[in-house]
Design goal:
alpha/beta, Rossmann fold, 7 helices, about 15% strand, His_Pase_superF_clade-1, His_PPase_superfam, hydrolase
Length: about 200
């Protein structure tokens, strides 16, 4: 297999109001749309995108569909690239969560979280990695773009770079920003770039 570039683009700004947002389906704000448009310009200037995959959630999907159609690119809308299912905690204010479940953030950062009514971290990790493996087996071309969420990107960075989730979490991809990895089957990936959104 020839080497290819995998770009992990995080959705732009949303009106989260200090809440934990997982599967809650929020649209992008105007700022979020500008962030993704600016990142798309930057990503496209580095190399033409040859295939796109996206989370089905609106904050990712609408952008991916628009650019897949305009560029006549193969698009995969993949439920396994959705954010972690936080169950009963989804949509809860972060301040209240910290009060009622002290240390939940450290559990998440350490890859140990199992929110009530949601999925465990290991279930989340397993579905994300299975989704990537399936997409990589069918995607074509030298530059593949995944539009997804912060948690998904951290799982993928940890796996592909061969590091712990807690270490990968330190390489934060901000909303609207992206990470690029150089991929060659049978070899470890390496990080090409980690960029913040250009728009503000």
């Amino acid at each position: 297999m020839n080497p290819y570039t995998l770009t992990l683009l995080r959705h732009g700004d949303i009106e989260h109001d200090g809440r934990l947002i997982g599967l809650t389906d929020l649209p992008l704000t105007e700022l979020g749309q500008r962030q993704l448009d600016a990142s798309w310009s930057r990503i496209s200037s580095l190399a033409p995108v040859t295939a796109i995959a996206t989370s089905p959630l609106q904050r990712c999907r609408e952008f991916a569909v628009k650019h897949a159609l305009s560029g006549s690119l193969a698009l995969k809308v993949e439920p396994r690239f959705a954010e972690m299912d936080f169950g009963d905690w989804d949509g809860q204010p972060l301040s209240e969560l910290e009060h009622s479940h002290p240390g939940w953030g450290a559990e998440l950062a350490g890859g140990r979280l199992s929110p009530p009514g949601g999925e465990s971290f290991e279930q989340f990790r397993t579905r994300v990695l299975a989704g990537l493996a399936d997409w990589m087996s069918e995607a074509r071309g030298s530059h593949r773009l995944l539009v997804t969420h912060g948690g998904v990107i951290t799982v993928l960075m940890a796996e592909l770079l061969g590091t712990d989730f807690s270490v990968a979490k330190l390489m934060t991809v901000q909303r609207g920003g992206f990470a690029q990895l150089s991929m060659l089957e049978g070899h470890p990936a390496y990080l090409l770039r980690l960029e913040s959104p250009c728009a503000d």
